[in-house]
């Protein structure tokens, strides 16, 4: 799905603007990693992109059509949103959570049929969590929940995935596998937008990155244009080195430096 954001400005009622004049595009096959300090508006932007919060001004276009004119059901069929720290109220089983992804495709009084069941099981299997199918979602680990939620999104067959800090509860191995799965989904045609607090996630897994700070993008571009020593220092107030990985000159990693480095001039090589 093609996403176009044009001059987007948003403010919560009675508060100052969270962001203003944001513009960017996303195309199918793209993984867009949104970075930025706490409280800078990443979750708010994702909620605007899912049509949950209305922009104060500007436009969000999905395949050229203005999102503000879309009904909730149409958005739910085509856009999937996994919010931060999602905890369901009811002890649904993992399979039932995956089946929830099929809801926008059912009739008003419809219940899931064989095909829905098949898609939900296939999605759980693809993410390695089919053995959890009958376990209550409330009794599995945070990382397993995240995988079950992604299965629900796969079963939904949405075209745009919005994921708010999806790796927050995953161990190192599962973070790596989860990000690789997002890359595979993008190659299969989805557009994926995730937020993260780890610049390396942008470097390792995204085709586009942006840093949101003080209501605007410090930079939006390729991950190596965005995750630079000066922009990371400007965004987070920490000194870092961005190092090449010897095994692959295209790969880079972002390493924090000791605090006093912020005040010392950078040594010459
Ligand atoms: N419902 C709300 N009403 C009023 N202000 C809100 C509301 N939700 C968030 N805010 C404020 O909007 C700003 C952006 O919050 P948001 O949650 O979008 O940031 P974030 O970048 O996702 O943060 P984090 O990285 O900590 O998750 C913050 O100042 C926050 O306090």
Largest beta-sheet details = 6 strands, mixed
Q: What is the terminal-to-terminal distance? A: 46 Å
Categorize the overall geometry.
globular
Q: Unreliable runs, pLDDT <50, ≥5 residues?
A: none
Ligand types: adenosine-5'-triphosphate
Number of helices: 9
Task: Compute the average pLDDT.
Answer: 91
What is the name of the CATH superfamily?
Answer: P-loop containing nucleotide triphosphate hydrolases
Name the helicity range: 25-40%
CATH topology: Rossmann fold
Number of domains: 1
CATH class category = Alpha Beta
Architecture (CATH level 2) name: 3-Layer(aba) Sandwich
The main sheet orders its strands as 6-7-8-3-9-10
Evaluate the radius of gyration. Answer: 19 Å
Strand fraction band? 25-35%
Structural commentary:
This protein is of the alpha/beta class and 269 residues long. It has one domain (3-261): Rossmann fold. Helices cover 32% and strands 27% of the residues. The chain has nine helices and twelve strands. A six-stranded mixed sheet has the order 6-7-8-3-9-10, with helices on both faces. The longest helix has 16 residues, at 172-187. The chain is globular. The model has no long low-confidence stretch (mean pLDDT 91). The structure holds adenosine-5'-triphosphate (ATP). Adenosine-5'-triphosphate binds next to helix 1. Residues 3-239 form the ABC transporter domain.
SSE order and pairing:
Layout: E1 3-11, E2 17-26, E3 31-35, H1 42-49, E4 57-62, E5 65-66, H2 72-78, E6 79-82, H3 94-100, H4 114-126, H5 142-156, E7 160-163, H6 172-187, E8 191-195, H7 199-205, E9 208-213, E10 216-221, H8 223-226, H9 229-236, E11 240-245, E12 248-256
Parallel strand pairs: 3-8, 3-9, 6-7, 7-8
Antiparallel strand pairs: 1-2, 1-4, 4-5, 9-10, 11-12
Helix pairs in contact: 3-4, 3-5, 4-5
Bound molecules: adenosine-5'-triphosphate.
